[in-house]
Structure of Galactose-1-phosphate uridylyltransferase:
Amino acid sequence: MEFTNYEPGEYAREHIRITPTTLSDGREFFYLDDEPDYVAGRKVRELRDPRQLADRFANQLDPEGNEVPYAAPLMRRDPLTGDWVPMATARMNRPINIGPGATATGNPLAARKPGDPYQDGEVPDVDYDVVVFENRFPSMVQVPGRDRDAVAHVDGNPLWLEKPAAGRCEVICFDPDEHGLPADLPVERLRTVVEAWAFRTAELSAIDGIEQVYPFENHGQEIGVSLAHPHGQVYAYPYIAPRLETELRHTEAYFQETGGNLLRDIMDAEVAAEERVVMENGSWVGYVPAAARWPLEVHVAPKRDVLTLDELDDAERWDLAQMYSTLLKRGNTFFDRGDGKGMDLPYIAAWHQAPVRDSRRDHYRLNLQFFSFRRAANKVKYLAGSESGMAAWVSDTTPELIAQRFKELGPVRL
C-alpha cells in the first residue's frame, strides 16, 4: 500500500505491512502488522467492521429526543494568554470502562470478541499487532463541508474569538494484550510503534489546516487514563500548542542571538557535563534536564539534527525502540517499595516535534519529554497553588538525584 506522504524505509518495506480500512461510522483505521505471515500476504486482515454505527457526522438526538446537528468541537481563544482552548461537549458521553464511575464493560481497544458486551470494540479483527484509528470521541475533528477557518465572536464581542476545532485525534494500540504493559513489549514491537509514529506524523502533517502533530502516551490510572490497554494517541492541532509555542519563542530568539540551535546546544552541554546523562546508544541520548520540573523526568534527543519523527532513518528508529524500552523498564524500577519489584509507573511520554508550517521550525529539533508526577513509592506530586495557579514550578528533588537513581538501575551506554 502506498501513501501520499509517508515513505517507508528499507526495514518497514520488508517487515511491516500497513493495511487501511474504514470503520462503520466512517473513521479511518490502519493495521500495522509485523507478523511475517501478514507482512508476506499469506494472511489478510478483517476489513469489515461488524458493528452498525451511524455515520460519525450524522444528526444526533438531544436529551429531549429532538434531532440536532452533530456537535462538532469548537475552540475559543483566551485573550489574556492567546491560547486556543478546544471545547468538545460530545466527549461527555464517551464510555468510562474502569473505576467507580464506569459506564461500560469490555475493552474497546481489544481485538474483536464475538458477543462482547461493548459492541465488539473498535478493532474489526480477532487479533492484531499494532493498530491506529481515529478517536470515536475526538477533542478536535474536521467536519466535511464546514469552513474550518470560520471565525465567530462569543456574545458578539471581538474579545472572544471562536473557530471550529478542526484538528484530528487518533489512537495507537501497541499490542492486543489488554493486560500487558508497554514496558514489557519486545523491542521489535516497539519498533513497529515507532514506525506508527513516523507514519502518522507524515500523513497528518499534510492535512490542510494542521499546524502541529503531537504523538504522546498517557500511562496509569493516576494520570487519568480510563483504559489500561497499552496505547497512545496522536493529536493533530489546528494551532501551535502553548508549550511548543513557548519553546519556539526561545529557540528562535537563541538562533537570532547566537546562530545556534538551542536544543542541540542543550543536548551537547548535557553530554559534556556527563552527570545527568542516564542513557546513550548509537543514535540517541537520554538525560535528566538541568532544570527538571518533575520528580522523575528524562528527555531523549537524537544525536543527528532531526525535525520530526518521519525524518528518522532505519538505524535511528531501531535505536529509539531500544532506548524507549529501556527507559520504560527503568522507570518501573525507579521507586522501590521494599520488595525489589518496583511498580507500574504512571507517566506521560510527549513527543515535541517541529511545527508543520511555522517559519521557526528550522531552528527547532525533535525531542521526547518523559515524566511522572510520582515522587516516591507512596507519594504523588500534586500541582498546587504555585504550579497550577502561576505555572511557577517548585521541584521536590534535584535533577542530579534523579540521574543518580537512574544510573543505579543500569549502565548509561546501552
Summary: The chain has two domains: 10-238, 243-408.
